[in-house]
Amino acid sequence: MSEKIRSYWGWGWEQALPDDKAKEVLAALISMSFKGLTLTHKPYPNIESVTLAPSQIHAPAQLEDIASSSIYDRASHTYGKSYLDIFKGFHGDFSNAPDLVVFPSNSDDIKAIYQWAQDCNIALVPYGGGTSVVQGTECYRGADRECTSEGYAGWVSLDMKKMDRVLEIDQTSKAALIQGGATGPVLQEQLAEHGLTLRHYPQSFEFSTLGGWVATRAGGHFATLYTHIDDLVESVTMLTPNSEIKTRRLPGSGAGPSPDRFCIGSEGSMGIITEAWIKVQTPPQFRSSLSARFKDYNQAVDAVRAISQAGLYPSNCRLLDGNEALLNGISMNGESIFLLAFESSDHDTTAWMERGVEIVSEFGGQLGRGPQYKNAGDRANREDESGSWRESFFAAPYRQSALVSMGMMADTFETAITWDKFHALHETVISRVQATMNELCGQGLISCRFTHVYPDGPAPYYTFIAPAIEGKEIENWQAIKKIAGDTLYEFGATITHHHAVGRMHKPWYKKQSPDAFSSVLKASKKQLDPKWILNPGVLIDAD
Amino acid sequence: MSEKIRSYWGWGWEQALPDDKAKEVLAALISMSFKGLTLTHKPYPNIESVTLAPSQIHAPAQLEDIASSSIYDRASHTYGKSYLDIFKGFHGDFSNAPDLVVFPSNSDDIKAIYQWAQDCNIALVPYGGGTSVVQGTECYRGADRECTSEGYAGWVSLDMKKMDRVLEIDQTSKAALIQGGATGPVLQEQLAEHGLTLRHYPQSFEFSTLGGWVATRAGGHFATLYTHIDDLVESVTMLTPNSEIKTRRLPGSGAGPSPDRFCIGSEGSMGIITEAWIKVQTPPQFRSSLSARFKDYNQAVDAVRAISQAGLYPSNCRLLDGNEALLNGISMNGESIFLLAFESSDHDTTAWMERGVEIVSEFGGQLGRGPQYKNAGDRANREDESGSWRESFFAAPYRQSALVSMGMMADTFETAITWDKFHALHETVISRVQATMNELCGQGLISCRFTHVYPDGPAPYYTFIAPAIEGKEIENWQAIKKIAGDTLYEFGATITHHHAVGRMHKPWYKKQSPDAFSSVLKASKKQLDPKWILNPGVLIDAD
């Protein structure tokens, strides 16, 4: 069996990208929603065809063993996984490739890399799973001019993959000390040996890392309560170019502004998350789930709001609008689909679900196959709509890469907003993005799901798909992202609920972030990264 | 009916301080736990007896109308409400009295005060309810030498009491925009007009303010989930000496390090919380509660841990050790008392409580009067141990003031720690504080309750009472606080879970806070308060 290889241009494992037959099925599904569209597809590209500009720098002797300048390493560390990234990668444009990729095994390696970067004016871009969809891990040479008058001598991608161990387990407190470079499956496997689990499943779970999650405030699969990794962090260790922030393991604290919350979301601009104590749990033994159909989307939204304010704290509480249900192959008739689930390692969740069913019914939802009450180990549970959804959820990024190869533009944006403003935002976003796609691409499809909900508002997540116009793919994609970002800003939403800011969202982040707080972050960066070597261009502008 | 007046030296309303008869009852209760103690008490002091040094400064014409230099205003704004504060106030030592007290009505007033303070080198101490137990609102002239070579020209207490309005209600999202100076009852009354409630009851609820809660990360009555005000903040407006940080109303966000979390806990060192959007709710309609007795404290702790890790999220989950039950008049036989309650505005909580009962029984707890299932409006519910506890909870600060008048030393300290380290910390704290009281005061009583619990650890809250030795009250109190703080630090706990840092806890906070993060806070303060006029001496050291 050949070793699995990460695609250097598209999502995930090269071997797991949809094959020709899968692409035909996908094409058929897409064709149902688009008029007169004939999808042809080019074959996936090959690393042999990639040429890169020569590296501008060489690793010093001390770091030679942990540095690589191979075409594969440089190309595969060039981009994240937005449409823009995949499009460029598919077409062999790796103009922002790092000069080198370094793979530290421990904090001493990182300190040596920092020293070298500071001495030689080298920009360092921390890299976890490379699943950023906001240009968070890109050697974005635009920042050269932005950050220093003379530009950097070179750009280096710092891949944390070798620091992937669960270092310590506290069974009593249910917490684990995990290194920043551990991916979802790798840390999950180590926790499982101790009968524990993290229950944090971003869509990027298979490849993204704990350190990346903490650095970007990743959203997990819990739809309520523990929505972001932020809520599961007990303490962090962040190594900065000139110091280390190592916080105490504390279940709660009232001692000054939270140092954890300063590190969480710093997106590699202040330091690298080398390890963190994370709250874990025993695997759920009880699970209940239902799916319901709503003819009226607004009523479905009201039902979700009622549930989010009921103090029931479901693990899943996802509302898919008609287009979202269609795109995921769950429902074809335009109805909204609502997925609700409760899980517990401690108690039967029947009472919780019974109240959920009452609320769903009060608001006119028609129950699908559920409610079903199952032991969580029972995979039969997954045969309902909720199961279809889950399969589709993790397959979606692979489908996006396939769509790009078929000449489609497909991407997402997401936000959070208070309930009072949701409807106005939603209707405007849908209509503006639809109009922009119609104008630029002739047609398009936009769908929405709630990934997370709070008592005071939802986190809507939008997917847009349109036939790309050859030669205008990037320009059109930028126009759509701009109308979306502008609308989110205009209606008081956030430019990101869990995809982070990176370089892509910075224009709106700068408007959304209070100026005085931006000045605080800049002063902080000067304190921790005085040579301004870490992830330049992300979050914070240089003077 | 005469208007209620805040005591200028002790807790709360002057009229509500225990009278002679109440003091006799208290003395009898105390005598049961102390050997050979004859408690005499001096009468409460009178404001007429207070003399203060003359004010060093005068308000400029523009601010004359909102400034006061009356003896009562200056004396009552001198201290918070720790033992140290009350002892000094009782004995007429107001050496740290502010030169002036100002009462802004709006942000423009605050800006004018900032301008004056920056122009004239005046230290400003933000003041909410004056209930700090950590010298957080004290004009701590020790900071004079610490912060500027020449010292400040004067110290001014900035009382937010006039900014006490609920400005806006969002019924759909269940949130309210509340001014920083609103006390618990004042904001609660305004919310009630809209059928809403905050459900955040710190022990200081009657006097402390929303802005004070946000600035100090106050703990509320929810024992799980929404333990700190942090968890209820949707957005904040913090006015700094040279700018304003006004964050977006967002149910959740992943856009960079949280600006809210930077303001929350800044303790008046960066700016003043002028208003905040806070998550509110409809009043609970369902409530279930029980009390249980445990012969074995360790088993009780295990029961609480199991409940905290069960995902049940009780509103009350308080464990009182034998001494705590004794001091609160709930139980005299040394058994630990466990109080568990669930509340909901949405659903009957029977299933939740049934599981709670199972866990309590599994760990050997003997049920008291509960479980009782009541409509939350039914006050009969309060006749059980949980009701006795609640009454005692809010009366405790009044009792402390009375005890000081009776020559007793009584104070508290609190922390949070992971479960794995709790027992070692607890045993050491108890034995060291007990030994110190024995050595210095001849005897003493130390008790513990859990105020809040998390899946990964409890927040233990300690009360210590000892006969004060005349002339050595402050010295002995300091010795006890020192052994407590040192022990918390040594065992990896936090110096405060919800009492804040202020000036009292700063020595331990400085050790606990990562150096690099302290440098970030200092850089931030220089950015927002370049003249270093706001609450000097709190949290951050000057160079």
Q: How would you characterize the overall build of this protein?
A:
Two copies of one chain form a homodimer. Chain A is an alpha+beta fold and about 550 residues long. Among the domains of chain A are: about 165-280, Uridine Diphospho-n-acetylenolpyruvylglucosamine Reductase, domain 3 (2-Layer Sandwich), CATH 3.30.465.10; about 285-320 and about 335-375, Alpha-Beta Plaits (2-Layer Sandwich), CATH 3.30.70. In chain A, about 35% of the residues lie in helices and about 20% in strands. Chain A is built from 16 helices and 17 strands. Chain A has helices at about 20-35, 70-75, 85-90, 105-120, 140-145, 185-190, 210-215, 260-265, 295-310, 320-325, 350-360, 385-405, 420-440, 475-490, 505-510, 515-530; strands at about 65-70, 100, 120-125, 155-160, 165-170, 175-180, 235-240, 245, 270-280, 285-295, 315-320, 335-345, 365, 370-375, 410-415, 445-455, 455-465. A five-stranded antiparallel β-sheet of chain A has the order 5-6-9-7-8. In chain A, strands 10, 11, 12, 13 and 14 form a five-stranded antiparallel β-sheet that branches. A four-stranded mixed β-sheet of chain A has the order 1-2-4-3, covered by helices on one side. In chain A, strand 5 and strand 6 (about 175-180) form a beta hairpin. In chain A, helix 3 packs across helix 12 (about 385-405). The longest helix of chain A has 23 residues, at about 420-440. The model of chain A is unreliable at about 380-385 (pLDDT under 50). At the A-B interface, strand 8, helix 8, helix 11, strand 17 and helix 16 of A face strand 8, helix 8, helix 11, strand 17 and helix 16 of B.
